[in-house]
Structure of Pantothenate synthetase:
Amino acid sequence: MEIFKQIAPLKAFLNAQKRAGKSIGLVPTMGALHAGHLSLITTSAAQNDVTVCSIFVNPTQFNNPGDLQKYPRTLDKDTLLLEKVECDAVFCPDASEMYPERSIIKFDFGHLDKVMEGAFRPGHFSGVGLVVSKLFNIIQPTHAYFGQKDWQQFAVIRRLVDELNFDLELTSVPTSREDDGLAMSSRNLRLNPEQRQVATVFYESLMAAKQALQQGKTVQETRAIVQTKFDERRVSLEYFELADSKNLNILENVKASDAPSGQPIMCIAGFVGEVRLIDNMFLQ
Ligand code: PAF
């Protein structure tokens, strides 16, 4: 496995692969890798000749400086994990390599970045759009892989690829979960043992909400069920929404006619102590 900190040698390596007609799969990450990331790598490896994993804690997508500072950084452990799967190259630049100058470009994804995560993390998706565009331009992958856990991010990146004509295929890989249902996330590393136990409330609430909505409860009634579960565990609920999975329009009921994609998705966010977690689940 090749490890690159700089753009120029990475490009030289990739250009040789492209001249040989090889397909390139990109798995963008911010490190602190877990089994969920590894499933993105193995999906890419099964579909491409060459798989590149980028590891970069992107400062422009953090609206909270404390969150950026506390984001787990475990590069040595990450590269050991990547050695064991079929990852061919790691790109782990410093911030000065990605942003030699303070960036002035901003993205506005319209409605896609005004709801849910966008409402609670202003500027977040602009930073994601920026770094993902840079990675797509540097690596020029034929395929790119993202986790379903960050569904809104996937919807935003799909729009970015469509509008800016990036010549690549996007894949969303289903969320990997712990045995008790907790969605795998690098942020889980910041939970103490007691917080780790109560964090299952996200998955349990989504399961209960799915049942409630399928039984005909309104979103409002379902949100009240979710809120009670969070209150019981003393976990703070930021939002619970039902949305169309493609255009992210917020739905007030589950009528298929309200969701042009035909696939409503439940999205949830909250804080366990200081640690912000998100999760989601398709209704069908
Ligand atoms: O999902 C993430 O880990 C990040 O948002 C991404 C896509 C790597 C961009 O920094």
